[in-house]
Structure formats: structure tokens, C-alpha cells
Amino acid sequence: VQLQASGGGLVQAGGSLRLSCAASGSIFSSAVMGWYRQVPGKQRELVATITSGSSTHYEDSVKGRFTVSRDNARNTVYLQMSSLKPEDTAVYYCNTMSIIKWAWGQGTLVTVSS
Prior knowledge:
The protein is mostly beta strands. It is built from no helices and 10 strands. A hairpin with a 5-residue loop joins strand 5 and strand 6.
């Protein structure tokens, strides 16, 4: 499975962005998916998950500000981000929540200016 994240960019604090992550392969529709982010020099962290049935879970720091969704017909998972903060600046990736991960892809850079 190949993953392609997009939608990142430069935004002012308080602004919004919508990220997309498209996956190849029919296995996507049954996969629990996660959105991760990574700041240079730090470990990649999980910020949101969504099951095949669209049940969601969020890390505390993004709860109430980020919304994860998916379109299985398009093999795509989304991350709507609002009320963005400078500390949300990172490269964002999506991947399966399975122990055996798919290839990570390049991710998409989100930069939030203060």
C-alpha cells in the first residue's frame, strides 16, 4: 500500500487546514487508520485514529480542534484541523494502526505561525 498525504501549508495561529491522505489498494477500507505527526528531532506521535466504521479517537492536545474522517470509496482519510496552534507545526502522516505499518510516504508539512 502506498500513502500520499497532502493539504499542508503555512497558516496563522487560529486558522484551519484540511489534510488528505490517499491510499492505494483495496485493503484500505478495512484498516484502522491513524494520523501521526513528527517534529524534527522528536518521535512521531499519534494524534487521531479512525476505524473502518468511522469510530474516532483523539490525543488530548488536539481533542475538540481536529476531526478525522474517511471516504472508503476514495481510499482517503482526512484530518480537518481548526484553531491551529504553533505547537501543531509538524510533518503529518497517515498510516494503518496495525503493528506492521505500510510504507510511510513523505507526509505533508503544516507550519503554524504565531
